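Lecture 7, part 2: worked example. A protein chain together with guanosine-5',3'-tetraphosphate.
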Amino acid sequence: MPDTAPHTANRPALPPEIARRRTFAIISHPDAGKTTLTEKFLLYGGAIQMAGQVRAKGEARRTRSDFMQMEKDRGISVSASAMSFDYEGHRFNLVDTPGHSDFSEDTYRTLTAVDAAIMVIDGAKGVESQTRKLFEVCRLRDLPILTFCNKMDREARDTFEIIDEIQENLAIDVAPASWPIGMGAEFLGCYDLIHDRLELMDRADRNKVAQTVRLDGLDDPRMAEHVPERLLAQLREEVEMARGLLPTFNHQSFLEGHLTPIWFGSAINSFGVRELMEGIAHYGPPPQPQRGGREVAPEETAVTGFVFKVQANMDPKHRDRVAFVRLASGHFQRGMKMLHVRSGKQMAISAPVLFLAADREVTEEAWAGDIIGIPNHGQLRIGDALTEGEALKFTGIPAFAPELLRNARAGDPMKAKHLEKALMQFAEEGAARVFKPMLGSGFIVGVVGALQFEVLASRIELEYGLPVRFEGSQFTSARWVSGERVAVEAFANANKGHMATDHDGDPVYLTRLQWDIDRVARDHPEVRLTATKEST
Ligand code: G4P
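Predicted complex, written out as structure tokens:
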């Protein structure tokens, strides 16, 4: 597998601190092994000392509340986070993507903060629905993708079949980086096609890194000392076929998102994980330019960044709110004063945090590509830009129109004000859309997937002590209204019964009929109804 393109194709050399950074996410269908793989990454990255720690922490956290119990029951991960660790001279920033399809909006935004993704698939199941959806989001952004085919220690599909399925289902070229030897109970390990060496799995110790046997190609006589004759013959035949039939790795094609290298392994047995990490380190892109009205290059000296996620009440005891910022350029230092572009105000960033494994730590510095958390009291919202003075506006972080609308009712009518506060907080987090109708009282809450109502109700109860009910609404669709101010106002006044404002005060048209939306488009060319809104 030749390295056909320089690391920073067509780009100036990056300062070493930036060049060594790799910011990526893992995409997968629930149960494919994302958590296990993350844990092994952290283990090899020295961020945790013992396998089981991530899960153990997860369990400890989950038992704390019904909400978390729900997360556990449904096998979803709702609390996204970012984790930083070092591996062989590289700084890895792993951004966690929420796993359930109901959280597509959140996931989409998370993927705006990374430069590459690892796609984990289950060797027995191949490409599953959620993998496909997430893959499509990556494709929209032309993200380079590395593939890890997991659970090879179990009965898996034929290797060619898996590769074919990815190629056909996802319309991407697949270049094998390793080739499995046997499968299920017979799985011995892989032949590493990049380094021409044998990797043997240790079944006795799940946390032991594979034993590597250096060889002179597949015909090296020492192969026979490690691989039984039948499997060896099969391996030679398959690799010959693969080399003849499948694409070979092309770095440029990978960086452009047209080709994915695939590694086979078993995360739970720590097998294939190191090779995957080396793959990210060697082939993965360093921090890429970001769209901020103009192209913002990572090597620019002025520090810039954008908020892609806001998480409130990470620790229910502290009522804090953390904005996750992807640094787009420069060398950030603690205490810096940054311009908060939306409000035009200066903010001193005195306690920026880096997320190391499951803990967070105040950091003295960070570089383009890093994800820092900035505790704040609600000033920072999704899509906000922080700069050293320039009025940048980062694009590509859309808000999607919710597909389900319901009325929110406080279980205790005396607590309506509290409910408003809680709802606004979730709206700012991006966990839901909250609309205040022009006529009447109360709020209409919009989400992308039904499960989000349950999550919201549990969180409002848990974090604010407020029982809440979500009841059927007369509306089913929401569209943002834009146009000249006078035209929008006239339109709103003529359609009061359908109008509301979102948490930013922007006008929204609510309806239950697609027909209505078409009618407005036909009869009111002076306004525009849109299903997405760029975060302001
Ligand atoms: P997810 O985050 O993608 O949802 O997957 P997770 O890592 O939680 O893994 C899902 C299940 O698959 C877990 O089993 C995990 O142990 C298992 N698993 C992960 N990697 C491998 C592998 O390489 N081989 C095999 N055979 N299994 C693997 P579980 O029974 O749901 O949980 P647990 O009781 O093991 O914790």
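Confidence is low (pLDDT under 50) at residues 1-8, 53-80. Residues 28, 30-36, 150-151, 153-154, 266-269 surround guanosine-5',3'-tetraphosphate (CB under 6 Å). Keep this in mind for problem set question 3.
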